[in-house]
Amino acid sequence: MNNGIIAQKQETSTEVAESESVTECEEIEDEESCFQEIEILLEHGISLADINNLKKNGINTIKGVQMCMRKKLTEIEGFNKEKIESLKEICCQISLSNAFMTASEVSFQRKQLFKLSTGSKALDKLLGGGVEAMSITEVFGEFRCGKTQLSHTLCVTAQMPGPNGYIGGKVIFIDTEHTFRPNRLKSIAERYHLDENTVLDNILYARAYNSEHQSELLNIVGCKLHEEAGVFKLLIIDSIMALFRVDYSGRGEIFDRQHKLGQMMSRLQKISEEYNIAIFITNQIASDFKSPDLATRPVGGNILAHASTTRIALTKGEGAIRIAKLLDSPDLEEAEVQFLITSGGIDDVKD
Ligand code: GTP
Ligand code: MG
Fold first, then answer.
1. Cβ-proximal residues to 313 (8 Å cutoff; 6+ apart), any chain
2. Main location per UniProt (predicted)?
3. Average pLDDT over residues 76-100
């Protein structure tokens, strides 16, 4: 299922160990595949035209139908209340056997989740192993604190084999601040002795120009993840709030902004679960110089705070040192570590 992108280029003395873990990983992915294509709805009386309309709206799997609210389905061409009820009922029947699982099964599934290295062992440890699949990890902090550097480092490390039989995968990068730099990726690839052209070829890049465009790009992401199932492992948005802050200004528009933001975050969460990928977003902090308390707070309010599974605050240290503080996680304690920004990306502070 996974094309083992970078792993193919790295066949060394570890070849045997890696190929064993590749097989193990493929077995796990096949076994746990949640990609029940909506084409199977044909066998249940749903027409091809309706299936194509669902696909046009980014719904490609049975899980995708279940994740979509009825009121959203009414916006799709050809779907009236009756048809939606019948569609929901069919999907419910199809997924009846896997609607619930035991806590032991959840525990097993969680142990299989891949984790992507940040480039710093200390930061990986803070995150319980790295940036986790099927969830949203958010880093926030002031300018130059390393958010984009961390994003670039993950673009490379996501392509490398890792624990739990992870064999590496492709990356999608949505850039809202025009700070994506292939040159940085080349020097990070060099650090890991990877072929720089392959590394660049494995990253799909899109520039978002406004918050609506950012949202439209997610539709394309959904299709891409479906078309190339299991190939992409990481989606980065650098930064999540920049365009929302420009497009919605003042108190009068805050409700609208938060509503749209909430929809986008919910979409991201669903994408991460449906396609088993890690989502990494960066965020800015408020610039309220009158109240210093506010000036260290991430923007996006409660909506973003609740939607991000894991939140990390970054601050500047001396020189190239940066401090990462884990603030919000469902299963990790609050703690902080130091890391370094180097030409090879994020690294550990050497003693
Ligand atoms: P904003 O996007 O402005 O909010 O900041 P950010 O948090 O995204 O900052 P970014 O990750 O871009 O980090 C910028 C810092 O990384 C600056 O201090 C740069 O000097 C440093 N930096 C960028 N490239 C290199 C490099 O090749 N080597 C080293 N050592 N540092 C670098
Ligand atoms: Mg940046």
1. 139, 140, 141, 296, 298, 324, 325, 327
2. nucleus
3. 92
